Amino acid sequence: MAWVILLASAVLEAVWATALGLSDGFSRALPTVVFAVAATLSMLGLGLAVKRIPLGTAYAVWVGLGAALTVGWAMVLGTEPASPLKLLFIAAIVGCAARLKALPEK
Question: Structure pTM?
Answer without folding.
Answer: 0.88
